[in-house]
Amino acid sequence: QVQLVESGGGSVQAGGSLRLSCAASGRTFSGYAVAWFRQAPGKERAFVAAIRWNGGTTYYADSVKGRFTISRDYAKNTVYLQMNSLKPEDTALYYCAARFGGVQSYDYDYWGQGTQVTVSS
Predict the structure, then answer these.
(1) Which of 49, 16, 5 has the alpha carbon at shortest distance from 119?
(2) What torsion do the CA atoms of 67, 96, 119, 64 make, to the nearest 10 degrees?
(3) Is 90 strand, coil or helix?
(4) Among 2, 38, 73, 80, which residue has the least CB neighbours within 10 Å?
(5) How many CA atoms lie within 13 A of 38 on its CB side?
(6) Who's near 29: CB < 8 A, 6+ residues apart?
(7) Rounded to an integer, what is the distance from CA 72 to the centroid of its chain?
(8) In angstroms, what CA-CA distances link 54 with 32, 47, 51, 57, 111?
(9) What is the pLDDT of the chain when averaged over all its residues?
(10) C-beta neighbour count of 9 within 10 angstroms
(11) Contact in structure between 30 and 53 (CB atoms under 8 Å)
(12) DSSP character for 104?
């Protein structure tokens, strides 16, 4: 069982930056892919980015390529999402998720509680 805790959300103006963190408790991320999803009001949850813990393969949604960077810290057993050049349309509740296996944009088994990101124009 993997328990995920997100942090780092907040409010920022357009063009600003935030860094989200996803920490695992109960076990390490070894062998897992860890992803970020987001859900805006009235919209379905959407894939943002994913990283393979072993090897570091990454995968991004087209809407965030070049602006967001997903990374991992072995020592802290934590995955980060660095978000730069934020836009109002990035406003959403951001979720961390994990699955055993490779990176993909769907079918994740473990989910955090979410952290809110609000970008004002």
Answers:
(1) 16
(2) 20
(3) helix
(4) 73
(5) 21
(6) 2, 53, 72, 77, 79, 98
(7) 11
(8) 8, 20, 9, 8, 20
(9) 95
(10) 18
(11) yes
(12) -
